[in-house]
Amino acid sequence: MAKKVVKKKKKGLKSLRGSGGSSVETSPLRPELIEKMPPCIDACPNSNQIREALMAVSRAEEFGKDLDEQIQRAFYLFLDTTPFPSVCGRVCPHPCEGSCNRKEKEGAVGINSFERYLGDYGLEKKLAPTMLTDEKKSEKIAIIGSGPAGMSCAYHLARRGFPVTVFEGFPKTGGMLRYGIPDYRLPQDILDAEVNRIVDMGVELKTNTIVGKDIPYQDLQKEYKAIFVGLGAHTGLKLRVEGEEAPNVFTGTDFLHKINSGETVDVGDNVVVIGGGDTAIDAARVARRLGANATILYRRTKTEMPAIDEEIIGAEEEGVKIDLLAAPLEIYMDNGKATGMKCQRMELGEPDSSGRRRPVPIEGDTFDLQFTTLIAAISQAPDFTGFEFLIEGKDWIKVDEKFKTKEDALYSGGDNVNLGLVIDAIFHGRKAAEAINEMITGEAVANNAPKEIIKMDKMAHGYYEEKQRTPINEIAVAERLKDLSGEIVSTWSNDVAVGESKRCMSCGMCFDCGTCWSFCQDNAILKPLVKGGEYKFKMEFCNGCKKCAENCPCGYIEMH
User: Is 80 exposed, middle or buried (0-12, 13-18, 19+ CB in 10 A)?
Assistant: First the structure.
């Protein structure tokens, strides 16, 4: 018997009345599978493929795949965008976790620790990077600086078959990764291993070679088709207070450079560090490992401190005192050494250009601090010697969206463009490598259309069972302070990594949960024959009831 269509008053809806007399409300809308941008990837400056990597590991057993093969797949997903997963898994402040939708349940997925796990797995298994071409190109590229920006650029160019030479002024590679981050956060053997993986791709290194001093920049122009400048910000800024030229007053970068180079620094028993960033925290924690008491002086409140939250907490656990809303006024001298300083109490006023509230002196409210060593870690800048021609006005090196400077065939990235995160510098190097390749070969990287960022309010989050975040395994404070190189956090085991990966909700992408299929009463949804395959719709059976879209946990299905 033919179905009789009965019109409803509600616009766009109709009812199908079958032979049994039952009525089903229908709609002209039909389901579509539309991938969304997960907030973790959106928040990652380098757009690392976090969701795919987590899901590769988390669904391995259910999809009948070999776990080791899936871990390797996850490792290579990261290596497609970054050559430093082990490094970033230790030092990145993980903005991805700050945006993770799982935060609205019981806590963000441990993405940073997962990246570290994958990176260490790749090092242990000696997994080599994949090349993007077998072609060996003739055009030579010069990289100035072996920090994260320079080595990222070298890596992505080497993958494309370019002969690359990296010029480094210091004896060892790594830039601020080596000379600005203490071993307890980033062991040098881990950094060496990830740098060596890039070198093994055929990248040539020339250390102890300062371009602009040992080699004129113009000589490189004659020999190399393109040049990337990644100088790094190794010069600590001064306090501009009389007395800071004393031998026991250091900038934060100079102090950490000495320590990381193996020099012995006698800091005495009472160290004061000025600043609120990661360099200040690192300097204070190193001072504690050298046996001194350590005080951080910061002119704003803890809320405004730019340092990584975990590092601030770690410093306080280790006995670092943080004196807030205070700034230096005057350094006291005795027999050619700095012995203390006069400090000014502050209060917060209106926001400044950074968005943070401006510290304002409280008139007449001062105090004295005594110390054996003073470390000024207020900020840092690159040394532009030999590259002054790139500086424009008060700015540092300016680049366009492809990280090209105003000079032909000259690109730049990292801290000499603006002070940022390690992952920012890695992104700069990657995009510059893509632009250099495009300049030489004409091959542009496809720009995919931007995807909608999927938020928790567009997901059926009740589907996901509560599963507590895996805690970070740290050694005891007493053990931490015994030496400079003891790493605080340990890398996950396979079981822990797999367990934490299962907390990923695959925001915006199907993970074959079968929910849409189970809710469809009209047999309009075809399950994939192979687990993890693509779901399909039989539109001739669909009546637009919207149950599949309303109950899709990850927000992958839309009605249009």
Answer: middle
| Pairwise CA distance, residues 194 & 89, whole Å | 12
Q: Is 325 helix (H, G, I), strand (E, B) or coil?
A: coil
Question: Which of 445 and 94 is assigned the larger pLDDT?
Answer: 94
Q: Where are the beta strands (DSSP E) in 299-425?
A: 321-324, 326-334, 337-351, 357-370, 373-376, 380-381, 410-412
**Verdict on whether the full-model pTM lies above 0.85:** yes
Give the domain ranges of the chain.
4-35+510-559, 39-127+459-501, 141-234+382-441, 239-378
Type of residue numbered 36: K
CATH fold label, 239-378:
FAD/NAD(P)-binding domain (3.50.50)
Q: Regarding the domain delimited by 4-35+510-559, which CATH topology (the fold level of the hierarchy) does it fall under?
A: Alpha-Beta Plaits (3.30.70)
Q: What spatial distance separates the first Cα and last Cα of the chain, rounded to whole Å? A: 30
The 3-class secondary structure across 102-164, one letter per residue, is: HHHCCCCCCHHHHHHHHHHHHHHCCCCCCCCCCCCCCCCEEEECCCHHHHHHHHHHHCCCCCE
Residue 339's φ and ψ, nearest 5 degrees, are: -120, -15
- Mean pLDDT rounded to a whole number for the chain: 93
Tokens coding 462: 């009740």
Reported confidence tier of residue 55, pLDDT bands at 50, 70, 90: very high
Instruction: At 178, list the tokens.
Output: 């080596």
Asked whether residue 188 carries a pLDDT value surpassing 90, the answer given is yes
Look at residue 24 in the predicted model and tell me its pLDDT.
54
Query: In whole angstroms, how large is the CA radius of gyration of the chain?
Result: 28
CATH superfamily of 141-234+382-441: FAD/NAD(P)-binding domain (3.50.50.60)
CATH number of 39-127+459-501: 1.10.1060
- pLDDT for residue 493: 96
CB 537 within 8 A of CB 31: yes
User: Quick one: pLDDT at residue 546?
Assistant: 94
